[in-house]
Amino acid sequence: AVPLVIAVSTALAAKRGLLIRNRAAFERARLVNAVIFDKTGTLTKGEFGVTDVVSLDEAFKPEEILTLAAAVETNSEHPIARGIVSAVKGEIPAVKNFRAIPGKGAVGRVEGRKVMVVSPGYLREKRLRPSDERIEKLFSQGKTVVFVLIDGKLRGAIALADLIREESREALARLKARGIRCLMLTGDNRQVAKWVAEELGLDDYIAEVLPHEKAKKVKEIQAQGFTVAMTGDGVNDAPALAQADVGIAIGAGTDVAVETADVILVRSNPLDVVAILELSRATYRKMV
Ligand code: ADP
Ligand code: MG
Fold first, then answer.
1. Were both Cys, which of 25, 96, 157, 204 would link to 109 (CB 3.0–4.6 Å)?
2. Distance 104 CA to ligand 1 centre (A)
3. Residue that terminates a domain, selected from 141, 161, 181
4. Which residues belong to the signal peptide in this entry (predicted)?
5. Containing domain of residue 79, as a range?
6. Which atom number of ligand 1 is nearest to the Cα of residue 234?
């Protein structure tokens, strides 16, 4: 039978939009001394707006680069993709052979051309170097930058900006007041990560992490002796959520993340991470 305090706590939690799927993990939550947040959609709103489009090839105007990129991105669920699509005012052409490259970008055929929208890390892998002051400036401003390849050549870049959630500041202050180490794990570039980390006073951050590396990073922090709670939303986050002592899916996340998680936060609010840890402490204190 389920002890009454736990049943009451679980019901209370559910009322606030904290769905506990794994009771053993909920019990472990009181011991958590490191929280790893994913950036996009948890610490930030995950609502990207396009701020700049840079042409790196005279043959392509910025509007054309944006439209071709948007065509590919209509098939992607990534928050960056949604930002790019909503920046186009006119009509968006159709895409064929769409394929996502997890943690790196997306590719498809648009108007007979092969169009790729990719991360800075992907460019480095392919040894393509955008040596352009305009790009350097976008990075230094802490923006998210993706590159557009058309028929295999680098033709442009799109810069986007997201907003830090108001609740993130309070959540981090409360966790740090309890001596809990606060970290951020993101696939986005180092400069954006640094900017968010400094804004929020995070203890550390790990940027440009590929999807398959996320679980490994969680393991490393556990190996340092930490009991780890991890938040995530994407399909790519599922292994890391499974590895964490407490895996927390944010409500707007994909089915895979939600099915793997120990706890689901319906409101995608970082303060609810604090609430789960506090509720676990309160629940299991009453039982001793
Ligand atoms: P996170 O979940 O931490 O934001 P992801 O693994 O989803 O990171 O993505 C990492 C990086 O890969 C993004 O910052 C971006 O550069 C690139 N990327 C992934 N998907 C797309 C996409 N659909 N369009 C453009 N870039 C993408
Ligand atoms: Mg993600």
1. 96
2. 5
3. 161
4. none
5. 49-161
6. 2
Judge whether 157 and 147 are in contact, CB under 8 Å: yes
> What tokens does 48 get?
């990207």
CATH of the domain at 270: 3.40.50.1000
Do 148 and 169 belong to one domain?
no
Burial class of 177 by CB neighbour count within 10 A (0 to 12, 13 to 18, 19+): exposed
> With contact defined as beta carbons under 8 Å apart, do 13 and 6 qualify?
no
Helices 79-86 & 62-73 angle (0-180, nearest 10): 130
Q: How many CB atoms lie within 10 A of CB 227?
A: 17
Residues 140 and 80 in one domain: yes
* Structure tokens that stand for 206 in this block: 């790990």
Q: Whose CA is nearest to atom 25 of ligand 1?
A: 105
Q: How many domains does the chain contain in total?
A: 2
* 162 Cβ below 6 A of ligand 1: no
Specify the pTM: 0.91
Interface TM-score (ipTM) > 0.95: yes
pLDDT tens across 182-241, in order? Answer: 999 999 999 999 999 999 999 999 999 998 899 999 999 999 999 999 998 877 888 999
Ligand 1 and 28: CB distance under 6 A: no
Q: Which among 92, 127, 161 is the end of a domain?
A: 161
40 lines ligand 1 (CB under 6 A): yes
For residues 10 and 123, state if they share a domain: no
Residue 22's contacts (CB-CB under 8 Å, 6 or more residues apart) are: 262, 263
Do 207 and 143 share a domain, yes or no?
no
- Sort 211 into a burial class: Cβ within 10 Å, 0-12 / 13-18 / 19+: middle
Amino acid at 133: E
Report d(CA 257, CA 71) in Å as an integer: 27
**264 in the same domain as 171:** yes
Ligand nearest to the CA of 73: 1
